[in-house]
Design goal:
The structure is a single chain. The chain has no helices and five strands. It is mainly beta. It has one domain. The chain has a three-stranded antiparallel sheet, with no helix packed on it. The radius of gyration is 20 Å and the shape is flat. It starts with a strand and ends in a 44-residue tail after the last strand. The model has no long low-confidence stretch (mean pLDDT about 80). GO terms for molecular function: metalloendopeptidase activity. This is ADAMTS/ADAMTS-like cysteine-rich domain-containing protein. InterPro entries: ADAMTS_ADAMTS-like, ADAMTS_CR_3.
């Protein structure tokens, strides 16, 4: 008897939007369903979501199919003109919470 855990995404040919289960302590998985529930994230490092078993792109504006991206200032849909460069040596500690 095997103990299985859900395998959400991994390299090596496993489809990110199918329901896969990995046998804990073993080197195999089994596909339990060809598609996960719509809206399931495709990957942990992305806003992309599964729809009808396929990974669909989501822009930073959180709209399905949108190509809007963050600029170098991390502003969604920005043009990079709002960045503020700060240079120097900082010796002061940040207050609790990490922002000034």
């Amino acid at each position: 008897m095997f103990l299985f855990s859900v395998l959400l995404c991994c390299p090596g040919g496993v489809k990110s939007c199918s329901l896969n289960c990995l046998a804990e302590g073993y080197n195999f998985y089994t596909e339990r369903a060809p598609a996960v529930v719509d809206g399931t994230p495709c990957r942990d490092d992305s806003l992309d979501v599964c729809v009808n078993g396929e990974c669909k792109h989501v822009g930073c504006d959180r709209i399905l199919g949108s190509d809007v991206r963050e600029d170098r200032c991390r502003i969604c849909g920005g043009d990079g003109s709002n960045c503020e460069a700060i240079e120097g040596v900082f010796n002061d500690s940040l207050p609790e919470g990490g922002t000034v």
